[in-house]
Predict the 3D structure of the following.
Amino acid sequence: MRSEVEISRVIVVVDDYRDGGEVLSHILRARGYPATWVSGGSEAIAFLLNHPPEQPILLILDDMMPEPSGMQTLQMIRADPRISRTPVIMHSAGFDLAHRDQAMTLGAVAWLLKGGSAGASVDTVIDTILEWYQKVGGAPLRDGAAIQRGPKK
């Protein structure tokens, strides 16, 4: 069972590749931010539905996952009025411009490439994630509890 702090203010990394998801979550926590990993779209939606709507959350969503894919998960999030306003960053090893455009049309706030020569550096990816988390009202942890701020305008 997740603690109330863990589910109330958090960056949720959604990736079917356990090592990648856990490493990204670990780096975010090492930087002082609340982060957790879930293994797929269905688990991410369940997490969102149990999340207090007044608390900051940011979803980092792998695009290339088995059913539901990241894009299907994003479509399900946008179709459910209880979670439709959840900020989502797509994080993918692939770069199909039509796919990226579809995600942005569905309201993804960013599309970040995973590693490789065409990908952004790890620091750039982390900095972008933390910048967006702060924009939605999240803040670093202090004494084991996340600090809540109002969303930046």
In short: Confidence is low (pLDDT under 50) at residues 1-7, 145-153. Residues 26 and 112 are 18 Å apart (CA to CA). The radius of gyration is 14 Å. The helical segments are 4-8, 18-30, 41-49, 70-79, 97-105, 122-135.
